[in-house]
Prior knowledge:
The protein has 239 residues and is α+β, with helices and mostly antiparallel strands. It has two domains: 2-82, Phosphorylase Kinase, domain 1 (2-Layer Sandwich); 85-223, 2-Layer Sandwich (D-amino Acid Aminotransferase, Chain A, domain 1). The chain has six helices and 14 strands.
Amino acid sequence: MKGSLLYEGKAKKVYTILGEDNQLILEYKDEVTAFNGVKKDYLPGKGRLINLISSILFAYCNQQGIHTHFIDSLSDTEQIVEHTRMIPLEVVVRNKATGSIQKRLGLEEGVAFKEPIVQLYYKEDALNDPFINEGEAKMLTGCTSEELHYIQAEAKKVNKVLLPLFQRIGLQLIDFKLEFGRRHDRTIIVADELSPDTCRLWEAGSNRKLDKDVFRQEIGSLLESYEEILTRLEAGAHV
Ligand code: C5P
């Protein structure tokens, strides 16, 4: 069933499926990296946690009518997704100030934005994924203005769907990164992953960090944090 290795990234491997051109297998690795690969570690069990969390979040988005690449879970560390051509954009949605926006604009950490802020970054490791504007995004990706507006509106929709889900399980969705892929018919869907590697999640009330910042800032056990997110999601995602 599993075909050849199509691509290996920092945290996952992508395989073809024999006899099935429209689908791929994503396999999550036990590696964690930060700061564009400068800081890295090997954490046995991490791939399972990311795969299970991302599967729950994507299945939830699908249920809520958002078009995503997620088809089904395959094993503890693997999932089946639709085969799309990835658009080299990182679309970040922010509800509260932290991370790069806090630094760049001199904001106080945790300040809530009146409206979610959507930002575009060019996905290019060699350039450290620079922040770009819409004109630059059109030039770099070949997307039309309408497609870029659709992408940003879909990112806001994902935020609208995930905010109450996390709220129900006592977590604040501070920000997250999405990637999009293009199908054969040129339609655009949410792809890649949705996980604490690509989101910021703080415990409601205490503001305790439970996402990759635990690793970036060395403030606790990443595996325990991710295990806690999975446990909370398993208990509350279907409510
Ligand atoms: O670092 P920054 O504040 O710009 O990150 C915003 C959000 O996007 C965070 O949730 C972070 O985990 C995610 N992100 C990501 N991959 C990147 C850059 C940021 O998943 N290459």
